[in-house]
Amino acid sequence: MGISFCLSPAWIGKTALEGQGGASPQDQMRESGPTVPGLVAEEMSQTLQQPDGKSELYFSFGVIADIQYADTDDRLNAWGTSMRYYRHSLCLLQSAIEEWNKEIPCPSFVLQLGDIIDSSNSVHKASKIVLKCVLKQIEKMNVPFHHVWGNHELCNFGRNFLTNSALNTKHLEDKTVEVSASATVSCHEDVNPQHFYAYHFSPFTNFRFVMIDTYDLNVVEKDVSSTRYEETKEFLRMRANRSPYRWQDDEAHLLMFNGGFGKDQLDWLDRLLTFSDENKEKVVVFGHVPIHPESKKRACLAWNYRDALAILQAHKCVVCYLAGHDHDGGYCLDSHGIHHVTLEGLVESPPGSHAFGTVHVYKDRMVLHGRGRTTSRVLYFRRDQ
Ligand SMILES: [Zn+2]
After folding, report:
1. Distance of CA 155 from the midpoint of ligand 1 (Å)
2. Structural domains for the chain
């Protein structure tokens, strides 16, 4: 089945072709794909209509990041580099949902990549009421949202609250595949606030999506009684020993608003991806914080991104990593043929613009149809699978 797009003229963004289909794995071993300026809707549509059965659409899904809604006036970000439109972000979420619901075929699910409301809400003791406003919009979506937890979720609520909230979507997990991380952590357990928040699901034969918790280790939560707190303390102590007076340049991402991965989670991820390798699946991994230094500015990387990246690169099933957190967005194709896409933040989209996308999945590629500030991309799967 072929598809055609109706690209909303006001929201047509840039388009890029990444890891093109005819390229060898060697050709694909480059760190950043070329943007193709001026590639318009018609040309993009042609890339979707390919012969030899590759134009059959398998499924689609929505992506949105850093909604960061707050009932507060617009203001510059902490670095003073760009404006944040806090109230307007709710209107943009509403229009994204309306557009997804109208799409034919409708996306099968939406990945909300974290920071759904702004941390300033906690200062005004408005976190719960503001979250309710956002969830009221999300209820209008015809398909499920998968909610990632970012630093702003943890700042507003903490893990205990989130575990029992509508932002916990672990019930959408694929329960037919059992992959335990250790004797004490099973992916089938209900979310335990002491454990990481991560799960996986398979929306289509031979495709798997894996949510990872990029704040498994963090200093955003202040629960000193948790095992996470002890592991975080130890992690930071080890890094401090290496650089006692100041972080080295290559540790410039060890900032409070980033987080990292504990050993249990990395172990779980490794085992799950081994399962996917053995079953010849294609895997999309997603989390709040980027894990590749070329996909975003270093200040926004996960603390031990090297550990997570090494695991992803050790498994040929992995085709893409999706993140938010850095509102400018970003992209790179890594040396193993994995696409790293950092989505532009909704909260920094001014009136008249937007930042969300629909990803269409085919046999040999994913096509990100971005709106507004979200760059449209054609992401070819690695050829070594
Ligand atoms: Zn964030």
Report:
1. 10
2. 9-380 (3.60.21.10)
Ranking 24-38, 322-336, 338-352 by mean pLDDT, the lowest is: 24-38
- When pLDDT is averaged across residues 220-230 and rounded to a whole number, the result is 74
**CA–centroid distance, residue 379 to ligand 1 (Å):** 24
User: What's the 55 CA to ligand 1 centre distance in angstroms?
Assistant: 36
Give mean pLDDT, residues 177-205.
72
What pLDDT score was predicted for residue 253? 76
Each residue's pLDDT tens digit, 67-113 = 999 999 999 988 788 899 999 999 999 999 999 999 998 999 999 99
In sequence order, which ranges of 7-83 are alpha helices (DSSP H)? 25-28, 41-48
DSSP 279-295: TT-EEEEE-SS---TTT
Positive/negative CA dihedral, 365, 57, 93, 209 = negative
Tell me the CA–centroid distance for residue 126 and ligand 1, in Å. 19
Q: Under 8 Å CB-to-CB from 384, ≥6 apart: which residues?
A: 25, 316, 337
Please tell me the distance between residue 288's alpha carbon and the centre of ligand 1 in angstroms: 7
Q: Mean of the per-residue pLDDT values for the chain?
A: 83
For the record, the structure tokens of 69 come out as 């809604």
